[in-house]
Amino acid sequence: MGSITRFTNCRVLRNGKLELEDLWVRNGKVIDPQPLFFGEKLRETERVDCKGGIISPGFIDVQINGAYGYDFSSDTGNIEQSLQRVAKHLLAHGVTAFCPTVVTSSRETYHDLVPRMKPAAGGVHGAAIVGIHLEGP
After folding, report:
1. Tell me: the pLDDT tens digits for 87-134?
2. C-beta of residue 117 within 8 angstroms of C-beta of residue 85
3. What Rg value do the Cα atoms of the chain yield, rounded?
4. By C-alpha distance, which of 80, 85, 86 is closest to 118?
5. pLDDT band at 136 (very low <50, low <70, confident <90, very high)
6. What would the mean pLDDT of 43-71 be, rounded to a whole number?
7. Which of 71, 79, 88 lies closest to 112, judged by CA?
8. C-alpha span between 27 and 123 (Å, rounded)
9. Of 38, 49, 39, 40, whose CA–CA distance to 6 is shortest?
10. Dist. CA 46–CA 14, nearest whole Å
11. C-beta separation of 113 from 76 below 8 A
């Protein structure tokens, strides 16, 4: 059976409009609840009240060189601050996770930046950092 979560009191985008409805998720995938009820005779194992909030998928940017005035390959002195600020701004555009990119650079640049570009959990503070995209020789 697995976990079945019912998100209630949610606003979901349907045909260009936000509609108030429930959203069902089974083992991490959005499902149609009708076969669950009528075919399997099952109900949710967990219920989450969204309290009228919007529920939507997030984008994952797998290659971003920088943004909002920050360049991950050249802002080497403040890379941690650059990553945090870009992560915060990306949320406003629906990006919930990203891989910062280092363009083709010297070995020294890679050795300096890569250990400081650490994975980070996402949340209200910003998008998650889920890896690094390295370009180079």
Report:
1. 999 998 889 999 999 999 999 999 999 999 999 999 999 999 999 999
2. no
3. 20
4. 80
5. confident
6. 93
7. 79
8. 21
9. 49
10. 24
11. yes
Residues in the chain: 137
Query: Could you tell me the two tokens for 129?
Result: 């950092």
* pTM (2 d.p.): 0.70
List, for residues 68-84, the tens digit of each pLDDT value.
Answer: 999 999 878 899 999 99
Residue with tokens 């099952």: 42
Cα separations in angstroms, 81 against 13, 116, 137: 34, 11, 27
Tokens of 1: 């059976």
Backbone φ and ψ for 98, nearest 5 degrees, come out as -155, 165
How many CA atoms lie less than 13 Å away from 106 in the CB half-sphere? 5
Closest by CA to 129, choosing from 68, 92, 84, is 84
Q: How far apart are CA 114 and CA 106, in angstroms?
A: 12
